[in-house]
Structure formats: C-alpha cells, structure tokens
Amino acid sequence: MEHRISSVKDYTDLVTWKLARELRKSVYDLSRRWPSDEKFVLVAQLRRAAISITANITEGFGRFTYPEHIQFCRQARGSVMEVRDHLTTALDAGYLTKKEWLDLDKLALRVIQVLNGSIRSARAQQQPSRAT
Questions:
Q1: Closest by CA position to 86, among listed 50, 126, 131
Q2: CA 62 remoteness from chain centre
Q3: Range of the domain at 47
Q4: Could you tell me the CATH number of the domain that includes residue 108?
Q5: How many Å apart are CA 54 and CA 111, to the nearest integer?
Q6: How many domains in the chain?
Q7: Nearest-angstrom CA–CA distance, 41 and 32
C-alpha cells in the first residue's frame, strides 16, 4: 500500500494526494472567473467533488486495513470522474477553453492512474506471500 512505504510519513507525502491537490487548486482557480449565477450550481458541485478527492485519499491513508484503504481510493476515483463530468459541462457552457479542459482532463486521468496503482498495491499486500 502506498502509505506503508517508509518515505511516506503523512498523507501529504502521497503522490496521489499531491496530484489531486494540484487538480483541486486548478479547479478553484478556473472556477473563480465563471459567471456568478453558477456560484451555487456548477461551481459548488465541482468544488465539492474536487475536495472529495483529496479528502478520501486522506481518509484512506488513515485507515488500518487494506479493504478500507481500497474503498476510499474507489470513492476518490469516483469523485475524479465527477470532476471530469463537471469540467465537460463547463466546456460545453463555454467557461473553459478546449486547451484548459484537455489539461485538466489529463491531470484527472493521471490521478485515476495513480489511484488504480494504489488499489493494486493494497490488493497485493492483502494476498498471503507465496514465498516459502
């Protein structure tokens, strides 16, 4: 599991969390310039989903069992997908340029990739060792 590595002492050391934080910050920066009538609609939904990613990674880090860690990684992955959908809505509404959307989507896909690696690692840790 990613947080069992000796160089990882806190959730802020996790590559997954760092990437998700970068995505969250980008979401906040871009959504600040969107129309005020979206403040309580798309902006709120998008920001909640972006916050959920880092929060779930953090909560999974704090759990004691691999199945719990995996479940929080899955929840984070679901929130990344939600962010991607909200960003597509923003693109369709003309709030993002195609380049901005592509850059954010690339980052979101990277977060998913690293989360998937963390899930695979945790699953492998659950398996009894075959070495005898």
A1: 50
A2: 16
A3: 2-126
A4: 1.20.1440.60
A5: 10
A6: 1
A7: 13
